[in-house]
Design a protein that fits this description.
With 192 residues, the chain is α+β, with helices and mostly antiparallel strands. It has one domain (5-175): Peptide Deformylase (Alpha-Beta Complex). Helices cover 28% and strands 32% of the residues. It contains six helices and seven strands; from the N terminus they run E-H-E-E-H-H-E-E-E-H-H-H-E. The strands form two sheets. Strands 2-3-4-5-6 form a five-stranded antiparallel β-sheet, with helices on both faces. Strand 4 and strand 5 form a beta hairpin. The relative contact order is 0.22. The model has no long low-confidence stretch (mean pLDDT 95).
Length: 192
């Protein structure tokens, strides 16, 4: 089932999310619905707060993104290892490597994009979809998408990385999103 994406302005997007157990009600359906919602919105990652659940769960699929790389991207990210994965109760262990910039957007903040500086490599502890503990190391675009989704379960948004000047410049867009004055190709729910 395709779920509505929570728009900027909702308090759930600013919550530090709670760990879950395998007994979390309707978890298998929730994971399936998150995949459906992700693909319906043409995203590469989706975190539970974006569908109004303050839990430490997110999904990432960078396979299509990497397969669609143009020649320049292939040269820039020659060793990119795409993933399709569920992350439960994730904890960032390390962020290393050079800081690099990439233009990011967010399903909860439609029509707003900006260059964000992030570390090139990360190391994370998480539970996979079967609640088996994993320690994974990721780099490049895949690490970036994971960092973006991890920020969501920590109550942080990509616009938090913007300068005060840029935040002032997009204030009208953010106000329009909060009041529901934005059109998307996917279902959204706006805060009142």
């Amino acid at each position: 089932m395709i779920l509505s994406v929570v728009a900027y302005g909702s308090s759930v997007l600013r919550k530090i999310c709670e760990d879950i157990t395998p007994e979390y009600p309707g978890l298998d359906k929730l994971k399936a619905d998150m995949w459906d919602t992700l693909y319906n919105s043409n995203g590469v990652g989706l975190a539970a707060p974006q569908i109004n659940k303050a839990i430490r769960l997110f999904v990432v699929d960078t396979v299509q993104m990497v397969e669609d790389f143009n020649d320049e991207d292939k040269l820039r990210y020659p060793n990119e290892q795409p993933i399709k994965q569920v992350f439960i109760n994730a904890q960032m262990l390390d962020e290393t490597g050079e800081m690099w910039s990439y233009n990011e957007g967010c399903l909860s903040i439609p029509k707003v994009r900006d260059d964000v500086q992030r570390h090139k490599k990360i190391k994370m502890r998480y539970l996979d979809e079967n609640f088996v503990e994993q320690i994974g190391e990721f780099d490049g675009i895949t690490a970036r998408v994971i960092q973006h989704e991890y920020d969501h379960i920590e109550g942080k948004l990509f616009i938090d990385y913007m300068s005060q000047l840029k935040k002032r410049l997009i204030k009208k867009k953010l106000d329009d999103i909060m009041s529901g004055k934005v059109k998307t190709d996917y279902k959204m729910v706006f805060s009142k």
